[in-house]
Amino acid sequence: MGTLSAYDNEWLQRLLAYINEMRGIDFSRYRHATVLRKLELRIEATKTKTYRHYLEHLKSRPEELDSLIAALTIKVSTFFRNPPVFELIGNVVLPELVTEFGFLKIWSLGCAHGQEPYSIAMLALDLMKREEPVDIKILGTDVCDGAIERSFEGTYPEGELADVKKKFLESYFERIVPGPDQRHSQEGMFRVSNQIKSMVRLECGDMLSRLKQRRAKGDRYNLILCRNVLIYMNRFLQSEVVQLVSDILHENGYLVIGESEMLPEGLRGLFAQPFPGIKIFRKKSLAKKEAQGRP
Ligand SMILES: C[S@@+](CC[C@H](N)C(=O)[O-])C[C@H]1O[C@@H](n2cnc3c(N)ncnc32)[C@H](O)[C@@H]1O
């Protein structure tokens, strides 16, 4: 992709500022090449040709903003995505948190259509069958363009359930039997149970501002998932997000990132990596960090 002229760059900045003003999400801090590529697709689809004309189009057709946000945010997800990570969460992380804290307070940042927080809810519920019940709070946050509505609806194509264990499939999903007028749209679809849905609170919003709000309120979590979303951000935004996550994690709380993601270099010292090769990190306790800093 060639370098933008000063004129195009000026209009690109105005376009990104407009999105930020309207939706509170700053795509100038996302990976530049990806943002440009996705914008080009919308410019082509709307036959507007330049950033300037596209911005005019956007202002006159509010519904285009939804298509643009949908293009700029990649919502691919599945239940129990990357199963070894969920095995460890179910068998080690959640039981440890229950023993240490006596409650589970979990946040899925960039939760797409709810597959991730609902997977966690199934593991937590399964654990409660084996342990003394504890208070469980699970929150899912995603940018608003229908993602959260789809999470509330809780219906998924069979392909997104490929990694769901049989016992969970039987206990927490029902196959949708399409009505005569819905034969095609509902075929091969499953609905997650109301019990699982009721365990998860979902909200629309930009994770950066939500993290800041919750840090200001003194809200704390013992497990945060921020998977397959850092990868779209530039390194400054990645660092800001991971720093905020660390601030609102309890000591010994866990952070999970995507398989192909890395913690920003300057922040790696805040976390231990208890399972070699797996992107599950544990926030170090202050006492430990101080001891390590001593000569
Ligand atoms: C590729 S999906 C990953 C979904 C899930 N975490 C997983 O690993 O399967 C990335 C999600 O992050 C969301 N997202 C991107 N930037 C965001 C932001 N600033 N605040 C909240 N959600 C964001 C996107 O809308 C998308 O649903």
Description:
By secondary structure, the chain is α/β, with parallel strands linked by helices. It folds into 2 domains: 6-72, no CATH class; 83-293, Rossmann fold. Helix content is 49%, strand content 17%. The chain is built from 13 helices and 10 strands. 34% of the residues are buried. S-adenosylmethionine (SAM) is lined by residues 25, 73-77, 81, 110-112, 116, 141-143, 147, 206-208, 227-229, 258.
Estimate the strand proportion: 15-25%
Strand order of the largest sheet: 6-2-1-7-8-10-9
Mean residue pLDDT = 93
| End-to-end distance | 50 Å
Low-confidence stretches are none
Number of helices: 13
Sum up the overall morphology in one term: globular
What is the string of helix and strand elements? HHHHHEHEHEHEHEHEHEHEEEH
| CATH top-level class of the largest domain | Alpha Beta
Secondary structure: elements and pairs:
Blueprint: H1 6-23, H2 32-45, H3 51-60, H4 62-72, H5 83-101, E1 103-109, H6 115-130, E2 135-142, H7 147-153, E3 155-157, H8 166-172, E4 173-175, H9 183-186, E5 189-192, H10 194-198, E6 200-204, H11 207-217, E7 221-226, H12 235-248, E8 249-257, E9 271-272, E10 280-283, H13 286-293
Parallel strand pairs: 1-2, 1-7, 2-6, 7-8
Antiparallel strand pairs: 3-5, 4-5, 8-10, 9-10
Helix pairs in contact: 1-3, 2-4, 3-4, 5-6, 11-12
